[in-house]
Amino acid sequence: MCKIRLYILSISWAIATWCLVGASIDRFLCSSPSAIYRQWSTNRIARRYVIGVFIFYALLFIQVFYCFEASVPNVPVACYGRNLPCRLFNDWVALRVDIVLPSLFLAIFGVLTIRNVQTRMIHPTVHAVNSNNTNNNRLLMRNKERNLTRMLLIQVLIVLPLDLPFGIYRPYASLTSDVPKTEATAKYIPGGEKMSPEDVSGVIALLAGPESQWITGQTLQMSGGVHMT
Predict the structure, then answer these.
(1) pLDDT tens digit string along 138-165?
(2) Which of 3, 32, 36, 103 suits a disulfide with 160, CB 3.0-4.6 Å?
(3) What is the largest CA-CA distance in the chain?
(4) Concatenated DSSP letters of 45-96
(5) What does the pLDDT look like over 31-43, one tens digit per residue?
(6) Taking all residues of the chain, what is their mean pLDDT, rounded to a whole number?
(7) By the 8 A CB rule, do 72 and 137 touch?
(8) In 3D, which of 198, 4, 172, 23 has the Cα closest to residue 110?
(9) Which residues contact 88 (CB under 8 A, 6 or more apart)?
(10) Rounded to a whole number, what is the distance in angstroms from the first to the last CA of the chain?
(11) Which residues pair with 70 in a beta bridge?
(12) Which whole-number Å values give the CA distances from 150 to 72, 103, 105, 123, 163, in the listed order?
């Protein structure tokens, strides 16, 4: 069940992110001065876009059923990568395809949309008679530009700063999962110190000796209290 849950979660996260990108592209198309571009802003194109994104990520994440295992000892999650290449592949996919690329597309098409709006705005000629109306129109145009810029910043801030730390942490954790703890990180171990070979050899000697003849089907966690069951 954990593989199915992880598969659905990965696809849902990707679709939600790229739907934001699709909305940004659609705003660029419908605000374009070119009639050819505006013809691409239709419900049918939007449905095809969503279906295409779903099929792409459904195929991309199908490897979850092979790369992940359930109930792996000494890990704090229900599903964990089978090996380092599997973990790195999924981590880099999450970083690039789900975080970096969507943020880049949101910024690009957001700026293009603002440019389209500025291009299509009518700038009236200033006369003494209608100077008040002209000032009101300019104020209205500035407000529209500020609203569009604010919308662009909110979209980018939702995807990039909130997701990027987690996206960087995942490959870092995979690359350093087998690296011995330093003195700086050892203080976060409840046991108070790093594990030494002598600590492991005592348990091995116990399990290999006759004293362990009644110990069967057990998982012994030697993590100094980092992982507890």
Answers:
(1) 666 667 667 767 777 776 666 666 666 6
(2) 103
(3) 104
(4) HHHHHHHHHHHHHHHHGGGHHHHEEES-TT-SSSEEESSHHHHHHHHHHHHI
(5) 888 888 888 989 9
(6) 75
(7) no
(8) 23
(9) 171, 174, 175
(10) 20
(11) 79
(12) 45, 15, 16, 22, 19
